[in-house]
Inverse folding.
């Protein structure tokens, strides 16, 4: 009998065709949506979980007594109950950087969109306003010779750094795990502590996982330290930013603007306070999934499942469970 892999949630037919085409010989995908009877029935048979992190608490792990691995298609894992996974002795792995290029590109896109006021000018054009006002009033800026401060230099942060350097930016970073001097030199980045990064960066870009140490990493105190005219970019997780403090800070002009792919509540309420601000550019948590990286994420996931099936240790185990 084939080894069962529970996949959730159900995706489009085109995406599921990719998944089926890459499913290794000897394995079978059981496809279900979270919380359904089919999901829990499949969990009872499955030795592996492949998919996104939703509703993954004690009930899930108790319903899957044969589970050997939770293999996520995402980089983030904040919706997995770490203690429940630890109690069940099931390793949890992220996608091994399969979507890092996509998020890095999206980050650069948001930086450009904010500094070039893309949304503002688009809205003007479709409203019949062509170059209304002077460009000294509606200022746009270049990336060249600006300083980018990256908070969290993992797979995504490193790729953002390389792309920023191509735009002739200076790149600073802060991370709890500093690179060696040789690695910093090779990448072209310089380590600084967070307060110095906030004081000196023209663009502050967040690339940290969400956990207790990073929740509200950016709050009123941090915004007050930011350089006048600086902008904030967040493509990691919404709760890394204190949204109430961000609203007040943006209203006061420090930061001057923000580009956000993530919010605390997703989807957000229709009357979210940030929607009323003209200096906010938003995308709907769309940085990670590109058409290309569906293949990369499935390939990494199936490769890791096969490693465990062969008796080898999995790759990309999340830090909380890696010791």
């Amino acid at each position: 009998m084939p080894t069962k892999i529970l996949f959730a949630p159900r995706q489009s037919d085109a995406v599921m065709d990719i998944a089926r085409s890459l499913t290794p010989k000897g394995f079978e995908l059981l496809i279900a949506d979270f919380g359904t009877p089919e999901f829990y029935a499949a969990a009872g048979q499955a030795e592996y979980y492949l998919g996104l992190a939703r509703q993954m608490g004690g009930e899930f792990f108790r319903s899957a007594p044969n589970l050997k691995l939770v293999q996520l298609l995402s980089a983030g894992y904040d919706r997995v109950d770490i203690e429940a996974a630890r109690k069940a002795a099931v390793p949890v792995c992220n996608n091994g950087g399969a979507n890092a290029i996509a998020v890095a590109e999206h980050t650069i896109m948001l930086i450009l969109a904010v500094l070039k006021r893309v949304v503002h000018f688009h809205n003007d054009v479709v409203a019949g306003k062509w170059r209304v006002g002077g460009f000294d009033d509606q200022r746009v800026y270049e990336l060249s010779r600006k300083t980018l401060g990256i908070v969290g230099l993992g797979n995504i942060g490193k790729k953002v750094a390389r792309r920023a350097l191509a735009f002739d930016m200076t790149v600073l970073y802060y991370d709890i795990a500093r690179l060696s001097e040789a690695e910093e030199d090779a990448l072209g980045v310089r380590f600084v502590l967070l307060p110095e990064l906030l004081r000196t960066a023209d663009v502050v870009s967040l690339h940290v996982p969400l956990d207790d140490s990073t929740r509200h990493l950016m709050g009123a105190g941090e915004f007050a330290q930011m350089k006048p005219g600086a902008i904030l970019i967040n493509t990691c997780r919404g709760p890394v930013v204190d949204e109430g403090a961000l609203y007040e800070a943006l209203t006061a002009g420090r930061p001057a603007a923000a580009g956000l792919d993530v919010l605390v509540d997703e989807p957000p309420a229709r009357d979210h306070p940030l929607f009323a601000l003209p200096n906010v550019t938003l995308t709907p948590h769309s940085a990670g999934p590109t058409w290309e990286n569906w293949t990369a994420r499935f390939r990494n996931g199936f490769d890791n499942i096969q490693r465990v099936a062969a008796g080898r240790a999995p790759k990309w185990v999340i830090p909380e469970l890696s010791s």
Q: What stands out?
A: The chain has a mean pLDDT of 97. The CA atoms of residues 102 and 288 lie 6 Å apart. The chain has two domains: 3-98+290-321, 100-282.
